[in-house]
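Ops channel
N.P.: pipeline sanity check, posting one input/output pair.
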């Protein structure tokens, strides 16, 4: 994993990206909702164990993102996501991708594209990754109180949720921008 920018990136515009993945599935997410005092609103809850992984990355400054929905999480699918992020980086720019220390993020088999450098967050610091706020937003607004009958329904729900968020750059920017994470 790169610790510094490569020489070929020195004269290019710099973008800061954040990456993470979330497991979305049939267990679903409960959330708070308004109800009459003293009442207990009914909420659907599934007890089956099928899920997909939503790999997501965002560039808060440009309010853009890149995502893939995949059946599992490992180095091979992480390489697929790195290529997808590389295609979304602005033409002629170099991106620094900030990610956590998951095993498939630190594997020696990762092959990031030339326009991407990887930087790991310190351990036990998820609050430094704005994508955690994306997952919170999507779980609250798109995945809570839902039952998915099949794996394909889970994939569709992930795609619809991500595409809906990316379609409104102002929301994406509002939940991911950090004053300390601005490329100058």
């Amino acid at each position: 994993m790169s610790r510094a920018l490569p020489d070929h990136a020195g004269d290019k515009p710099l973008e800061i990206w954040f990456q993470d993945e979330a497991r979305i599935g049939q267990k679903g997410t409960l959330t708070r909702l308004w109800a009459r005092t003293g009442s207990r609103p009914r909420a659907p809850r599934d007890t089956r164990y099928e899920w997909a992984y939503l790999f997501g990355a965002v560039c808060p400054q440009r309010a853009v993102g890149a995502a893939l929905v995949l059946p599992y999480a490992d180095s091979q699918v992480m390489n697929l996501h790195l290529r997808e992020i590389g295609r979304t980086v602005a033409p002629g720019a170099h991106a620094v991708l900030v990610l956590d220390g998951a095993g498939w993020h630190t594997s020696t088999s990762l092959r990031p594209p030339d326009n991407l450098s990887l930087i790991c967050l310190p351990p036990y610091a998820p609050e430094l990754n704005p994508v955690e706020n994306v997952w919170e937003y999507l779980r609250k607004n798109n995945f809570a109180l839902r039952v998915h009958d099949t794996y394909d329904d889970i994939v569709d729900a992930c795609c619809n949720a991500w595409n809906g968020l990316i379609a409104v750059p102002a929301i994406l920017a509002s939940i991911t921008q950090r004053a300390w994470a601005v490329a100058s």
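N.P.: looks fine end to end. The chain has one domain: 12-25+47-176.
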